[in-house]
Design goal:
It is a single chain. By secondary structure, the protein is mainly alpha-helical. Helices cover 51% and strands 5% of the residues. It has helices spanning 9-18, 33-41, 48-51, 54-66, 74-89, 123-134, 144-150, 163-170, 174-198, 203-216, 225-233, 245-262, 271-282, and strands spanning 101-102, 111-112, 117-118, 292-296, 299-303. The strands form 2 sheets. It has a 3-stranded antiparallel sheet with strand order 1-2-3. Strands 4-5 form a two-stranded antiparallel ribbon.
Length: 305
C-alpha cells in the first residue's frame, strides 16, 4: 500500500475511513441506523490483505510490488479518474466534480463529490464528520445532526434548502477538495488495485475492481464489492489461482451487473458495464491501453492515444 504523509483534514479522514480498509463498520456514530446494523452483525473485514497477519501481509506487499504498475502508473491513474467521472458525472473532466451534488431519486439521498458520497449510505456522514474535526467552521458542519438523522434513508429532512449550497461552498476550499481525493485513493483506489494485483489481474481488471468498489462500497454484503468478488470466485478462478483472466472478468462483470439490476430502488443504469467495461474486455484490451472509446448513458466518450 502506498503510504501518504497527510496534514490536517486529510489525516483525520484517513484515520476515520482508512484504518480499516476492508469496509468494517467500527467507529460509526452510535445514533446512526448503520451503527445498530453493524453492532448486530459484528465486525468483519473482508479485505484479505487487511485480514492477514504481519508475515502474510509482507509477502502480499512483495507480490504487489513485483507486479506491473498497471493502474497505479500516473497516466493510467488519470485514465481511471476520467473513466470514473464519465460514469459518476457524464464528463471526463473529473476536477469539475468536487462541488457536484444532486438527488437522482434512487433512494440514496444526495450524492456528491468525486466518488458520489451519499447522504443515505453513511459515507457522506463519515466524510463530513472527519473533515469537521479539523475544520469545525466549514459550511457543512451545521448539517451534521441532520446527516445523522437521514443516514440510511433517502430523506432530505433538515438538509433542505441550504445543504446543496453548503456543499458547493465547501468545495471552494482546497482542503476539502484534497480530502475528497484522499478518500477516493485510500478508501477505494488503493485497496482495489492492490487486491486486483494479488488476483493476478491487469489494468482493466484493476479498474473494474476500483469502479465496483466505488459504486457498491467496500462492504462484505452480497451486494457490496467483496460479496461480488466472493460470488465470482465461486464460479471462476483468478489468474493467481491458475484461471483465465478474461473468463474471470466476464464472470465478475456478470455478477456485478446482476447486483446492480437487483437493487430494490433500481438505482443504477448498467452502462458502466455494458457499454464501457464489457466493451474493453471484448476487445481484449486487458491493459486498458488508449485510444479508448465507450458510451455512458448513450453519450460517446473518447480518450486518445
Amino acid at each position: 500500500m502506498t503510504r501518504f504523509v497527510l496534514i490536517g483534514a486529510p489525516l483525520a479522514i484517513a484515520v476515520a475511513l482508512v484504518l480499516n480498509p476492508g469496509g468494517d463498520d467500527a467507529g460509526l456514530p452510535t445514533d446512526s441506523p448503520k451503527a445498530a446494523e453493524a453492532s448486530a452483525s459484528g465486525p468483519v473485514n473482508p479485505d484479505p490483505f487487511a485480514a492477514a497477519d504481519d508475515e502474510e501481509r509482507a509477502e502480499m506487499s512483495k507480490r504487489v510490488e513485483r507486479a506491473p504498475a498497471g493502474l497505479a502508473a500516473p497516466r493510467m491513474r488519470e485514465i481511471a479518474w476520467e473513466l470514473l467521472a464519465s460514469a459518476e458525472g457524464s464528463t471526463l473532466d473529473w476536477r469539475t466534480q468536487y462541488a457536484t451534488i444532486e438527488d437522482s431519486g434512487d433512494g440514496t439521498g444526495y450524492a456528491a463529490g468525486l466518488v458520489g458520497f451519499c447522504s443515505g449510505t453513511h459515507d457522506m456522514l463519515a466524510f463530513v464528520e472527519a473533515f469537521t474535526k479539523d475544520h469545525p467552521d466549514n459550511p457543512l458542519a451545521p448539517y451534521l445532526p441532520a446527516l445523522r438523522k437521514v443516514d440510511g434513508t433517502g430523506s432530505h429532512e433538515g438538509l433542505d434548502p441550504g445543504f446543496t449550497g453548503a456543499w458547493k461552498k465547501a468545495a471552494e476550499d482546497p482542503a476539502f477538495r484534497t480530502a475528497q481525493e484522499e478518500v477516493r485513493d485510500k478508501q477505494y483506489f488503493e485497496p482495489a488495485v492492490r487486491l486486483a494485483k494479488l488476483d493476478g489481474l491487469g489494468t482493466l481488471g484493476q479498474f473494474i475492481y476500483f469502479d465496483t468498489m466505488v459504486l457498491q462500497g467496500p462492504g462484505h454484503e452480497a451486494d457490496s464489492f467483496y460479496g461480488i468478488r466472493q460470488a465470482a470466485l465461486a464460479e471462476a478462478d483468478t489468474v493467481a489461482e491458475g484461471g483465465d483472466e478474461s473468463a474471470y472478468l466476464d464472470i465478475f462483470l456478470d455478477t456485478a451487473r446482476a447486483v446492480m439490476k437487483s437493487k430494490k430502488n433500481q438505482q443504477h443504469d448498467t452502462s458502466r458495464i455494458d457499454t464501457a467495461q464489457r466493451v474493453f474486455l471484448e476487445d481484449g484490451n486487458l491493459d486498458l491501453e488508449p485510444p479508448l472509446t465507450w458510451k455512458m448513458y448513450g453519450e460517446t466518450f473518447r480518450i486518445p492515444s
